[in-house]
């Protein structure tokens, strides 16, 4: 199993906030997540400082469209030097395969595609309303298995789901877990949370952390503490 890595969620409204964040964190932090808020605001300009600082980029756009459109978006991300990109497993086998193949065609970029399964904002009643009758956990596991069988490199999942996916899917798929809080910390709006140690032991390869580091009085110390709890 590869050494687990920490990803910092850049949940900020504009890219002028990025240099101060990166410069304040220990050099061991290599990976940063750009999500919809930043990307819709400024697009690939948000990558400039990250690329210049030799940091890796997790672009969390949760793509969900027809296969050809997703394949082309994947190609664009690869050209920008993105390292990890998310798609919705619910886009179906053909879309997932098209995303994986497009990344493979840009193999020099080493872009990996990871799938999200069931959004954590949804519950069983929400699924019923959109026509999904199987229990949420079954739906989530089935979507994860579909994505990996279609050639997707890994999954975003909760720390609680990680050990189940690891058991079912073996060591190869990348597992990325948000919802991390160091022991004793404020949960914020996260409902299902776990400690860094729990997530790593459950088989996660990447831990996504935002507020516990960015809103800490001393972000460098908070990051070092989480790295220590990850066993790094
Ligand atoms: O601040 P916090 O550590 O909760 O940030 C976690 C990051 O992971 C946020 O960018 C959030 O949008 C993202 N995320 C999540 N839960 C999911 C999927 C993504 O917290 N199920």
Notes on the protein architecture:
The structure is a single chain. The chain is an alpha/beta fold and 232 residues long. It has one domain: Aldolase class I (TIM Barrel, Alpha-Beta Barrel), CATH 3.20.20. It has eleven helices and eight strands. It has an eight-stranded parallel beta barrel with strand order 1-2-3-4-5-6-7-8, surrounded by five helices. α4 packs parallel to α5 and α7 (136-149) crosses α8 (159-169). The longest helix has 14 residues, at 67-80. Cytidine-5'-monophosphate binds at residues 9, 11, 35, 120, 156, 178-179, 188, 190, 208-212.
Topology:
Blueprint: E1 5-9, H1 18-24, E2 31-34, H2 36-42, H3 48-52, E3 56-63, H4 67-80, E4 84-88, H5 93-105, E5 112-116, H6 124-129, H7 136-149, E6 154-156, H8 159-169, E7 174-177, H9 196-201, E8 206-209, H10 211-214, H11 219-229
Parallel strand pairs: 1-2, 1-8, 2-3, 3-4, 4-5, 5-6, 6-7, 7-8
Helix pairs in contact: 4-5, 7-8
Structural class by helix and strand composition: alpha/beta
Please write the CATH class name.
Alpha Beta
CATH superfamily: Aldolase class I
Question: What characteristic shape results from the CA principal axes?
Answer: globular
What integer is the average pLDDT? 95
Low-confidence segments: none
Query: What is the string of SSEs from the N terminus onward?
Result: EHEHHEHEHEHHEHEHEHH
Q: Write the CATH architecture name.
A: Alpha-Beta Barrel
Order of strands, widest sheet: 1-2-3-4-5-6-7-8
Oligomer: single chain
């Amino acid at each position: 199993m590869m050494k687990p890595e920490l990803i910092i969620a850049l949940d900020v409204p504009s890219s002028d906030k990025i240099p101060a964040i990166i410069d304040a964190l220990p050099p061991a932090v290599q990976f940063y997540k750009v999500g919809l808020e930043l990307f819709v605001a400024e697009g690939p300009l948000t990558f400039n400082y990250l690329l210049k600082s030799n940091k890796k980029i997790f672009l969390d756009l949760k793509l969900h469209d027809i296969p050809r459109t997703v394949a082309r978006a994947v190609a664009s991300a690869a050209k920008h030097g993105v390292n990890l990109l998310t798609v919705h497993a619910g886009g179906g086998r053909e879309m997932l395969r098209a995303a994986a193949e497009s990344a493979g065609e840009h193999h020099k970029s080493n872009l990996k595609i990871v799938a999200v399964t069931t959004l954590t904002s949804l519950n069983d009643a929400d699924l019923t309303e959109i026509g999904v009758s199987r229990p949420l956990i079954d739906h989530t596991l089935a979507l994860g298995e579909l994505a990996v069988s279609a050639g997707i490199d890994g999954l975003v999942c909760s720390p609680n789901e990680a050990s189940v996916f690891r058991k079912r899917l073996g060591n190869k798929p990348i597992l990325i877990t948000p919802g991390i809080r160091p022991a004793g910390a404020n949960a914020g709006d996260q409902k299902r949370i776990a400690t860094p140690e729990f997530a790593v032991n459950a088989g996660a390869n990447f831990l996504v952390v935002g507020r516990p580091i960015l809103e800490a009085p001393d972000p460098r110390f908070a990051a070092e503490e989480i790295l220590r709890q990850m066993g790094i």
